[in-house]
Here is the input.
Amino acid sequence: MMKRILLPLAAILAACSGPSENPVVEATYDYYGDTVQVTDTVSLPQILAQLQGGNDSIYATFAAPISSVCQVKGCWMQLDLGNGQEALVRFKDYGFFVPMDAATEWAFIEGGLTVDTLSVEWLQHQAADAGKSDSAIAAITEPKISFTVMASGVALVQKERVVSDEAEEHDHSSHEH
Amino acid sequence: MGQVGCQEKAEDRTPPNSGRTGMYTPSPLASTMRNMADDMEALRTKADEGSLTVAEVDVLIQAHAAMKEAEATKPDDIKATFSGYAEAYLLQLEELKSALEDHASRQERLDAFNAALATCVACHQEHCPGPIARIQKMKVQQ
Here is the structure.
């Protein structure tokens, strides 16, 4: 049964805290499928802990880096969950796709997460979509247990605008006048 | 049933693109199949209610026959079985049309409707499993 978790966590910064130290950044987003509320995300470790703690599935909005995207249509993507774990993301009702060059970007995703068994047929199809060789595809002979996501919406950062100290100072001075 | 074969529908479903270069442009076959899915979802309710007409199925057959010739995203990946599935799908629609013409039972009409969808699922299992979940939802529970 799908469980909806509504935790008011402003986790964007926590989720996106990568190796780079960003200055003040304003971001706008490209939305695919439903519009994702990027300011209302749940931390990924919290979700994974709940799944590993016995929840069958969790409906949430979260952020994670994209490790690969279907190179035929953009009809699935893999997320890097850390610790060598990945999640396969597919899109509700095959109703939208994501850009095929989105690998390495951070994605904000709303959808249902679960642990699923991916069939050999699916894994071979996925490998073909990823441009793997025939021999690599033929070598896939076992199903795989994986985190999976059925996403109702995805948001990707459209552009970043760095707000410099100089600009902020200018804004302050204009307020004084 | 003015929606059948309407090309605008595929474009309406295209995700927003703010200048990104990696967005997929649907092939003619992909666009045709998206329209087919929209059509079958629209007709599902009518099939369930028993209000589906012969004329509506006839329009569907004419419009959906386009998939036999439409170019795929990766033509080399289209298997020899594709044309057989396409013909089987269209034949099932003919069966549905006959069931309506013969005033067959609800059971027989829904069997024909669901059988058409079953050919879609079988073909997608061989070619592209992505849309299967959506297609399965179109079947009318009896």
